[in-house]
Amino acid sequence: MNSFLEFFSFADPNIRYVVFGSILLTGSSAIVGSFTFLKKKALVGDAVAHAVLPGVCLSFILYGEKNPIILILGAFLTGWVSLLLIDYISAKSKIKEDTAIGLILSVFFGIGIFMLTIIQKSGNAAQSGLDQFLFGKAASLVGTDLIAFTIIALILICTVSLLFKEFTIAAFDKEFAATLGLPIKAIELILTTLTVLAVVVGIQAVGVVLMAAMLITPAAAARFWTEKIQTMVWLAAIFGSFSGLTGAYISYIAPSMPTGPWIVIVVSTIAFISFFMAPRKGIFYRVRNQKKIKRQINDENILKALYQLGEQEKSFFEKRTVEEILQKRIFDPAKLKAGLKRLKRQGYLRNKNGHWSFTRAGRDKGQRTVKLHRLWELYLTQYLRIAPDHVHDDADTIEHILTPELEARLEKLLDYPTVDPHSSEIPYR
Amino acid sequence: MIEQAKDPVLEIHDLTVSYDRKPVLWDVDLTLPAGQLIGIVGPNGAGKSTLIKSIMGLTPNSSGYVKLFDKNLKDVRGKISYVPQKESVDWDFPASVLDVVLMGRYGKLGLFKRPRKADKDVAMDALRKVGMEAYINRQISQLSGGQQQRVFLARALAQQADLYFMDEPFAGVDAATEKAIITLLREMSARGNTVVVVHHDLQSVTQYFDWVIMLNMRLIASGPTEKVFNTELLQETYGGKLTLLSDVGELIRRERFPSREQKRKKELKQKK
To answer: Which 112-141 residues of chain B touch chain A by CB within 8 A?
Structure first.
């Protein structure tokens, strides 16, 4: 608890640098990354991240010391060249974009590692720490780094908010944007430049290898929660910043823990949780929804069986045993029992001494299912010309999904028929 | 059978378009009249979409030029609207129906500016015309094919243009939507707008269009429907490709041959 207070009071300037540096880096790269994600260019971010390494090394070789501004300039240059090369190769040759990305990534990264090795062997004392570009050095950020990051983060955020509408249309429908007369090439060039800038600052926190995660993962996680692009970008920024903050905190309480990888682990966890928990799109929601549908089908089938029993004996409110129901229709006994209990709880059935009978609402619901089944059978034979002995299975499914609105349309279309293709009566209320 | 229009809204002069050097449209030369509903028909791969894309400046022309309202495209963009094929975009994009229709206003808005209240009014009006006013806040990922097409049409209407190019607006829509769309297009042309539509269904051509363009890698006919839409020209359009023509095109691509001699291009530039 003590360390928690100590950390979040931000009294220690080192903590301040690390925390605000990490938040700026992760937040702003998440914002820019949202558009990379929407343009389905996730891998491009990875290629750029690897391609900045030779730039970093080159500017160190030329300048001789680790000045953050100079290193950023070098990184920016090769990152940008790599993107132009990817575009050029995929436009002008037979090589497809994915191959071009793979080529550029490995060639640039290979050159970068080669140069890094030369620098390390050169005996220049100033080189120590240059290899931190590989995995990030968020824990050792200093005041001058923070100033540089703040400026770049501000540039990124301001440009995105100014050109939000243009970036959106470029991601959704580039050709249409071009026909409107929007300078689409310039807009894309700006977005490219922002992506490179985001990568260049981001690698200082999480390193070359993990940078793609910072660009893409927050946006991918945010996409699960919203259908609004503004909300998505905000959420991505929040997810990114939160992981920056948490990563910094974890490496503070456990000093042997590296900040960068922890940032990535936190943001990946957020993405993982989104993947499972998000409403509508999450796995849990879908599984739960599937279960709900299965329950509904099961229960409606029980009511249908009871209704059909009633039809046979022309007495709908008779008490029935489980065996009688099972004779009418095959159920898994456990599911039948659960369904009967549920229907009782919902007020569709009554139970007295193990005998089940309809309530009025239950009879109506059973009747509706039977009616929909027979209407659909009739529809299939009349409009799809399907033989009457082939329509049953189809109707067994469709009867559970038809909405009252479709029901009304079906009735009208078939002109309120009285019997189905098997001459069973279609019951109306 | 190529009939020239008086006071044309569109003039295409000797246009050749190539993909990867292979010409897909050869020397198209035509003019279109104002205020009419115009259909472009032809078999698959005839270059119908290519023709309107190249008019909209989306594919580079190998030779020839296009004049709209007697001007170059970039001087009259505000008066021209383009409806791409609905499959050309990813409908699982985080946007609402209104967001997409508002994009039709971006050209008039210019850079940096956010849509204003007036732009929303225009977008709402456009949505009403296509019968989608009940869906303004619906996510585009939840639309049916016919609804997607209506949204694209509304976006075009929001541009308030004079000349519309539509790439297969009837593809993959239900009968009710098709009827609604054709009624709307008729109203537009009655108001003096020119609407050019890439169309697939030959049965409805005489019923829908005042003017027909028949394409199959080259222009076969362009003129009033009752004059050009006949068996003879249809046979010429649909009766197989000119194999010699496509073989020459293939050769140009394989040999990496320039589709026009460099010298002439320079001359043309000097003339301009």
So the answer is: 112-115, 139, 141
